[in-house]
Write a structure and sequence with these properties.
heterodimer, A: 4 strands, B: alpha/beta, 6-stranded mixed beta sheet, 4-stranded antiparallel beta sheet, 10 strands, 34% helix, globular
């Protein structure tokens, strides 16, 4: 700790650079987590809406209901009448009341809302069944947010891949930063090392403080990045608050998971240790 | 029975065992330039030796070989019964802990207090703090600097800095004390005082080897003298008893 304090400006600067590198990694991982979360939230709401033709006969309607209920993967089915659909809209978007008044009549069709089982939601089989139901007489359209879920999931995977790619580059950069800081510290303490050797210090005794320095810089950098990420995640919704509108309730910005935080800290500690080792093996010939 | 608890016979035998034994030591730094040539030397336990000669005669090279800072080109060197050339690099610390070394340029740490400068050799040995305090105080008292224990070396005079370096060399009670021109830039009075300190340490049983070109000092204190010239021994003077 004494050594860290002795060269505090240099060490703080390098810890900050390491923190910023890890922050970028953390941002992408957090983004990926949030997209993944969003996708699973959407997937939880696995409703397929089958909108009915206004002129549908009672027989046709009964047939549609029968087919939907008999489909594998359907948890339960609910009929939403035109009046009910109108009421829902009025409740969700009270500011659009005027538009409805101008229309004069109820524009919403009646529908069947089928809640799917989670497994069935993303299966190709379900997609085929929905296509079959859509083809039934009296069914006008199908609303299905499966594409959104898939998009979210691929975006999440993309964010994670970018995180890994950038992370790899930045972690490598941090490795060289730590390696160079340790090298500077070795040079700065050249006299001390020389004296330690002459009074009979073991190699471990001489190397250990430098290894601990590298380790501490890694841990400090990652801890700092986690703190910065936490601040960013708290500030981001406040900044976007107004523009998010109704989505604000839905999007709850999530921090990294505990295992991700621990991995980040252990990874950076390991990187600090390796950075020190590489520097010591090159510049500290004992 | 002697204070060591060993039998008188064993004591005599140990006294006759060589502490520093050099066999045909030669050192070549560059092609054709020999810093040392065929040096044979046998220093017994508890002896006090001066190595003298003009600049470039190989005095410092000899010391560096003894504490294994450098390796000789030829020859063998045995310290306290161990051939140190066969000592692997990672075990040199064992040899160094049995030695105290004083350099002409002192090699003090100016950002650390006198206490820490002297204690550094004890820190590396993992000695308890209480014991470190006691030993550092005693070492500094030996060189009459115990009152300046908490000062920085930069606040001390040249002679005082030299004495700190000596205290650091003797604090771990080494078997061998090596000094390279320890009185190099000191006035004669201070130089005599410093060698007096070495003599005191020698009286406590430490084998002392001092490199110096100060003829006056050697004439006054030297009972065993090795004369070097251009890397060769050109003479040895061995008095049977210590002069001072």
């Amino acid at each position: 700790m004494n050594n860290l304090w002795q060269y505090r400006v240099r060490n703080l600067l390098s810890a900050t650079i390491i923190a910023l590198s890890f922050l970028i990694v953390g941002v992408f991982f957090s983004l990926s987590n949030n997209l993944q979360f969003l996708a699973s939230r959407l997937a939880e709401n696995m409703v397929v809406a089958f909108f009915l033709n206004p002129g549908i006969s009672a027989r046709e309607q009964a047939r549609v209901e029968e087919v939907i209920k008999a489909s594998p993967g359907v948890a339960h089915v609910k009929f939403v009448s035109r009046e009910e659909a109108l009421a829902r809209f009025q409740k969700s978007f009270p500011e659009l009341e005027d538009i409805l008044k101008n229309l004069g009549s109820n524009p919403f069709p009646a529908s069947y809302e089928a809640v799917l089982q989670k497994k069935a939601f993303l299966s190709e089989e379900a997609l085929g069944l929905i296509e079959d139901i859509k083809a039934l007489p009296g069914v006008e359209d199908v609303q299905f947010n499966r594409d959104w879920v898939k998009k979210m999931q691929s975006l999440s995977r993309l964010a994670r891949a970018i995180g890994f790619f950038l992370g790899g580059i930045l972690i490598l950069a941090s490795f060289f930063i730590i390696s160079n800081v340790i090298r500077l510290n070795v040079f700065a303490r050249k006299n001390e090392i020389e004296i330690l050797r002459l009074v009979g210090a073991t190699n471990t005794f001489i190397r250990l403080p430098f290894l601990l320095e590298g380790l501490s810089l890694g841990v400090l950098g990652s801890a700092l990045s986690l703190a910065l990420l936490s601040i960013l995640i708290k500030l981001f919704p406040l900044y976007l608050g107004q523009s998010l509108g109704v989505l604000q309730e839905f999007i709850n910005f999530r921090y990294l998971s505990l295992s991700q935080c621990i991995s980040l800290i252990i990874g950076s500690a390991l990187m600090g240790l390796l950075g020190s080792l590489s520097s010591l093996s090159r510049f500290l010939k004992i | 029975m002697p204070a060591s608890g060993r039998s008188p016979g064993l004591e005599t035998a140990l006294e006759n065992i060589g502490m520093i034994e050099l066999y045909h030591i030669s050192k070549q730094y560059q092609e054709g330039q020999w810093a040392l040539m065929d040096i044979n030397l046998h220093i017994k336990r508890g002896e006090f030796w001066f190595v003298t000669g003009p600049s470039g005669s190989g005095k410092t090279t000899l010391l560096k070989i003894i504490f294994r800072e450098i390796l000789p080109t030829r020859g063998q060197i045995v310290i306290d019964g161990i051939n140190i050339l066969r000592l692997p690099d990672h075990k040199i610390w064992k040899l160094r802990r049995s030695m105290g070394i004083v350099f002409q340029d002192f090699r003090l740490l100016f950002h650390k207090k006198v206490f820490d400068n002297v204690a550094i050799g004890l820190y590396v040995m993992g000695i308890p703090v209480k014991e470190i305090r006691r030993r550092v105080f005693n070492a500094l008292r030996l060189v009459n600097l115990h009152q300046k224990m908490w000062e920085y070396p930069s606040h001390l005079s040249y002679g005082e800095q030299q004495r700190v370096a000596i205290a650091r060399a003797v604090v771990n009670e080494p078997q061998i004390l090596l000094a390279d021109e320890p009185t190099g830039n000191l006035d004669p009075e201070l130089a005599f005082e410093i060698i007096g300190v070495f003599k005191e340490i020698n009286r406590q049983g430490t084998t002392v080897l001092i490199c110096s070109h100060d003829k006056e000092l050697i004439r006054h204190f030297g009972d065993k003298i090795l004369f070097l010239f251009k890397g060769k021994i050109i003479g040895k003077e061995v008095q049977p008893f210590s002069r001072k």
